[in-house]
Amino acid sequence: FSQVLLLTSAEDLDCTPGFQQKVFHINQPAEFIEDQSILNLTFSDCKGNDKPRYEVSSPYFKVNSDGGLVALRNITAVGKTLFVHARTPHAEDMAELVIVGGRDIQGSLQDIFKFARTSPVPRQKRSIVVSPILIPENQRQPFPRDVGKVVDSDRPERSKFRLTGKGVDQEPKGIFRINENTGSVSVTRTLDREVIAVYQLFVETTDVNGKTLEGPVPLEVIVIDQNDNRPIFREGPYIGHVMEGSPTGTTVMRMTAFDADDPATDNALLRYNIRQQTPDKPSPNMFYIDPEKGDIVTVVSPALLDRETLENPKYELIIEAQDMAGLDVGLTGTATATIMIDDKNDHSPKFTKKEFQATVEEGAVGVIVNLTVEDKDDPTTGAWRAAYTIINGNPGQSFEIHTNPQTNEGMLSVVKPLDYEISAFHTLLIKVENEDPLVPDVSYGPSSTATVHITVLDVNEGPVFYPDPMMVTRQENISVGSVLLTVNATDPDSLQHQTIRYSVYKDPAGWLNINPINGTVDTTAVLDRESPFVDNSVYTALFLAIDSGNPPATGTGTLLITLEDVNDNAPFIYPTVAEVCDDAKNLSVVILGASDKDLHPNTDPFKFEIHKQAVPDKVWKISKINNTHALVSLLQNLNKANYNLPIMVTDSGKPPMTNITDLRVQVCSCRNSKVDCNAAGALRFSLPSLLLLSLFSLACL
Predict the structure, then answer these.
(1) At residue 516, does pLDDT exceed 60?
(2) Which domain range does residue 140 map to?
(3) Same domain (yes/no): 559, 601
């Protein structure tokens, strides 16, 4: 009997909403004592149990807010079973209380919890006699009006009737009242069944002090439905789809209306029909609606349901729902059903002609022709969109074809330049298919293939150097007029028998000349590997080959000359200026470095020497540090003055080259951390700074 209805999902998956125990067994006592706890029920909605409400199937019991079941008065017999119904905004559940040893005096579960209202509530023998009160909704004035009466055959003298429940002393309050003396029940206003269909009231008798003598006894007030609500289509818009060519009787969609009246009466018994169909061709009755279920089905033959022959593939139906089982007195509501006739791929694409022509200049790329097709299917679907394939005539993959998404045309393109001299004509076989497969009974025919004839136009092409680039290796400084090579260029236009002339295009240093007839390249100046026009020992020049066409065409060739080094550059030293204090204890003057523009082995190791000493007794000394650096030092302190020391450096070339450079040494006065070189006309660099610079240069080599 117990059942849980979740109003919202539980936040905690470990929590199960409802009574934690569904069935309880209670031994029938001699008497249930008023306000004495019988058992505790544990109910949880997994949301904090916000204001739980309990209902007990017997009016003689209640459940407190803490879950405790107590009797409302001393009572001996309550039947074999009690039911407790608990509810919060988030969950509801029911628990069964089995009275072991009790007598069966209760009604069914449906009777207890208002699932059926066709008979009075079974009751124990008592003096208060009540029957359900039936009141039609929408009654008009005057109010109040009597609607029923409660009878108490053993009513004590001066006792009074009291009526309680929703609609009396609970919201909505004041709808019903009872004559405390006669037991006559009256209604004070118009009732609406669609707001509240059943009122559950309780009647009891009290003494003059208000103490209950008998009861409470349940009193049901049932509101009788009237046909005051039209059917409403609440789930729109209603859009259905049916494939073209569908068999007769194919279900398209279902239309369902809602009627707020009593579903157990004809007031909410609906019948459906089609009021209007737009357009009304090829038949005014393309569809039928099941009057009871609301299913819309096709009623025309598959041949009439052909999207390509229909005036419009969209139909609009005005659907009417009528209550009272469709009788004329019933109320009606309408809605529009839109039905789309969907396309299927029952038409293959066809080329508009069997053969297409195209011309293209040799060497050109891009679209050369658009192939047109016709397809009767829906342009918004894959049943219309075309896919093209080259099935023959494209062994070199020089052509590609793609679909224009706007026009559905096949755009045939040249992607690899064509050569007139190799082939002046090309023939391609193209097929077209749809993106979607055809239906089983339709196939691609001869019209789905086409031939494209392509004519290649001859263009005067420029001569081509071979090889390109051209490469030679020579020593620098070779004599002027030396022949480097003879270039070779050929004309691709072999059928035109043209002559070729040569010229220099780019010669940055002006070192070269070319014979215009035979293409011999010689030198007009000395080649210098150390020239700024030479990059990594390679000199680059460009030449032109010009044919005799009209207009003439030109080809460009590249010459790369690798220059081998010769020892034609003397080394040089750095730095050329140094400072030293006249009272320095460290007599080191400067570390010299040497460099050479040539390549190894025409560079280091370098030999450092003092060419001559102008001062008697030879006060200068030079010592080798490594292959590229040497240390200049004093043998004794000198007076404050400027000294020019000739340094001779020699490279390792064969034959070697030597360079003599004056090293200017400034002997300065150094007192109190101040360096004074004014008297010597010296620069303001300190000796430690120069030594640091020299050591840095040494470390970088």
Answers:
(1) yes
(2) 128-224
(3) no
